[in-house]
Amino acid sequence: MTDIERDVVVIGAGASGLTAANELKKAGLSVAVLEARDRVGGRLWTETIDGAMLELGGQWVSPDQDALIETIDDLGLETYSRYREGKSVYIGRDGERREFEGEIFPVAPETEKVMVDLIEKLDALVAEIDPDRPWDHPDARALDAISFESWLARETDDEEARENIALFIAGAMLTKPPHAFSTLQALLMAASAGSFSHLVDADFILDKRVVGGLQRVPILLAERLGDDVFLGQPVRTVQWGDSGVTVIADGMTVRARRVILAVPPVLLTRISYEPPLPRLQHQMHQHLSMGFVIKVHAVYETPFWRDKGLSGTAFSPYELSHEAYDNSNHEDPHGTLVGFVSDRHADDVFRLSAEERKARILESLSHYYGDEATNPIVYYESDWGSEEWTRGAYAASFDLGGLSRWGGDLRVPVGPLYLSCSDVAGKGYQHVDGAIRVGREVAAQILAE
User: Fold this and answer.
1) Cβ partners under 8 Å of residue 32, min gap 6
2) Which of 19, 92, 213, 324 measures 20 to 30 Å from 10, CA to CA?
3) Arithmetic mean of pLDDT, 92-116
4) How many CB atoms lie within 10 A of CB 135?
């Protein structure tokens, strides 16, 4: 059993923990980063599957993600734009496939008006929300007591409009049914990206990718730390008190003055704390849960949809794959589609055999792109719900009432214990940008003390 001493020990080698560790090391403190997996990156994972490079986790860079863009530039990485030339596809309640341009789906004029009105109303509400302190909104408790589904039902009886607006938050972001999270949680999600309109605009929210994959960010951050990163070290016990911490992993013990818990909140209970965490943390962590989404990768000999004048962008709240995009790699002649199956749909298809699930998902993609979509040369499903050290995707969110009740306590240190991850970010919530922001803030907090 290795026994070492450091100023700060970081649990988790994702973007947030590695950012914090680098900031502390630059300031002259000694650090150790313990990672349970045999790789760094957390929810960023670029892997070659059957000869195809796939981004199994997070991958996109938005123009408002300043912290991520600064980090990419600092690491000397290059980005490229997502392919978006041509028309998008929408499948409506009637099952009809329609091609369109712009952001608003090609629905009946009356439904379009309702959707535009809802987006304007949500943008106005979001403008009142501080993403770092949504619980300070004067109506926070009321907004946190009503589900997003109920709020939409209160606003309009146009079912297709409601389902489309819900899609941008429920299916595409929180990956939970809209009855399972509050309107305040939905507003935080939108405020973290600047506006609800930004979530509607796929060209904004899914703007660029990193050449070689977004996992290059944590890989290069880890390289700067060198031998201070320890893989294959799941932490089992944290002993803490006024004198500091002792962190016990499977193969080593680290004694330090501070510990940064840079893991999703749902994993905090995997660690034993001596003494136990305070009652507040016990209650709060019970009301945070991960969403559930399958990220589907389908690689083809060529991007055949482009020959049909399609961008590859597709949406429908009525399809198994509620959204899909051209995800072809930089300068790769092959064509790659990425589709997403979330919340209850994901539950349903995981009750099927792997063969049946693949057939159902590819059939859904064929409704957007044609029969060619059913015959990929490489097919892979990213199932983060089965990842032991993540247990869901994309991020954790509170159940009804939880954000206004405990949100203000999420990032408050408990003695020498600090929390750092994208799940507790304000701006950049559930994105790599948020992970980096929180990592910087926690490091600054420790340095100030």
Assistant:
1) 4, 6, 8, 9, 10, 228, 230, 254, 256
2) 213
3) 96
4) 20
Partners of 417 in beta bridges: 259, 414
Helix (H) or strand (E) holding 143: helix 140-145
List residues forming the annotated binding site for FAD: 16, 35-36, 235
Residue-wise pLDDT tens digits, 308-365: 999 999 999 999 999 999 999 999 999 999 999 999 999 999 999 999 999 999 999 9
- State phi, psi for 258 to the nearest 5 degrees: -140, 155
> Which amino acid appears at position 21 of this protein?
A
Confidence of residue 1 (pLDDT cuts 50, 70, 90): confident
Report how far residue 104's alpha carbon sits from residue 94's, in angstroms, rounded to the nearest whole number: 17
Q: How confident is the model at residue 285 (pLDDT cuts 50, 70, 90)?
A: very high
Task: Specify the DSSP class assigned to residue 172.
Answer: I
Q: What are the binding residues for substrate?
A: 340
- For 281, 316, 366, 405, 407, the CA distances from 402, given in Å and listed in that order, are 12, 30, 40, 5, 7
Measured over all CA atoms, what is the biggest interatomic distance in the chain, rounded to whole angstroms? Answer: 68
For residues 41 and 18, the answer to whether their CB atoms sit within 8 Å is no
Q: Output the known binding site.
A: 16, 35-36, 235, 340
Structural domains in the chain, CATH included, are 2-42+215-277+414-448 (3.50.50.60), 46-64+76-84+205-211+292-386 (3.90.660.10), 104-200 (1.10.405.10)
**Which pTM value belongs to this model?**
0.97
Average pLDDT score over residue span 427-440: 98
- Asked whether 229 and 40 are in contact (CB, 8 A), the reply is yes
For residue 407, pLDDT beyond 90: yes
Tokens representing 74 are 């600092």
Q: Are the C-beta atoms of 18 and 439 separated by less than 8 Å?
A: yes
Contact (CB, 8 A) for 98 and 106? yes
Alpha-carbon torsion, ordered 205, 206, 207, 208, to 10 deg: 140
